[in-house]
Amino acid sequence: MTTASSALYDIPGPRTRRRHRAIGVIATVVILALIGWIIYLLFDTGQFTATKWSPFIYKGIQELLLRGLGNTLKAFAYASVLSLLLGGILGVGRLSEHRAFRWISTLFVEFFRAMPVLVMIFFIFVALKVQPLPALVAGLTLYNGSVLAEVFRTGIGAVARGQGEAAYALGMRKTQVMTHVLAPQAIRAMMPAIISQLVVALKDTSLGFLITYEEFLHAGKLIASNLDYDLPFIPVVMVIAPIYIGMCMLLSWLATWVAKRERRSPRTRAADVAPAAPPLLIEQRD
């Protein structure tokens, strides 16, 4: 059996493969032992007793959690759409041929990308006296939009230069080149980074509980603070954390599905080219 060579590294031999398998087995055992130890501590402290989980069967608590989850998804929907729009505008501004637009966009991106999200949210909420939901969405939009602007700029810049030059040679305007040639190719390469930043925005919606926005984490805090048994936060965290993780995994799965669908699209699929015909022999006449 022959193995293909790689330009980045040599194909591992039998001894290296055995070492890799041994390291994998050891790492698996350590991880399973750590998980088992955590589960033992949870059982040892009585976190799985019926008393600590019985509050979740009450309709009022279930409605509180569902309302908080809905508010989290609402804030994420607003922030993600506005962040993508702001990132696209700033990304185009940083690529502009006009120096003023380019400098303004650069200053905006560098300032809000360096500013902590929580500081922006608090400033908008306290200093500008904005309501909790708009303050949370504005802070998330300014930060994530600035980060996405850099993602868009580097993604478009990574497209082969000949693509734009060929489009200009066909007589296309700059807007047409950007929207029909460069952006579609760049988005496929930028999709993992875009989804990663949207996952960050989804997790950062939990900062809303600090400004009394009734999102998912705020609902969990209300439940935990009104229960009278020891270590009340553990069962609440065990309910909230898997839902957050599930939403992030669902977002990543959606990005993977979109990327696969885009690769199967007729617009991006390579067209079949007929084989070259043999050259015609032209008889020379005297």
Task: Give an overview of the whole structure.
The protein is mainly alpha-helical and 286 residues long. It contains 10 helices and no strands. The protein has helices spanning 14-44, 50-53, 59-94, 99-114, 117-127, 132-158, 161-169, 174-204, 216-225, 233-264. The N and C termini lie far apart (61 Å).
Write the layout of secondary structure elements.
Elements lengths: L13 H31 L5 H4 L5 H36 L4 H16 L2 H11 L4 H27 L2 H9 L4 H31 L11 H10 L7 H32 L22
Order of helices and strands: HHHHHHHHHH
| Overall geometric form | flat
Uncertain segments are 1-7
Overall pLDDT: 82
Strand proportion: under 5%
Radius of gyration: 27 Å
Structural class: mainly alpha
Termini gap:
61 Å
How can the largest sheet be summarized? none
SS summary, helix count? 10
Classify the helix fraction into a percent range. Answer: over 70%
Number of strands: 0
In short:
The chain contains 10 helices and no strands.
What descriptive keywords fit this protein?
286 residues; mainly alpha; 72% helix; flat; disordered N terminus
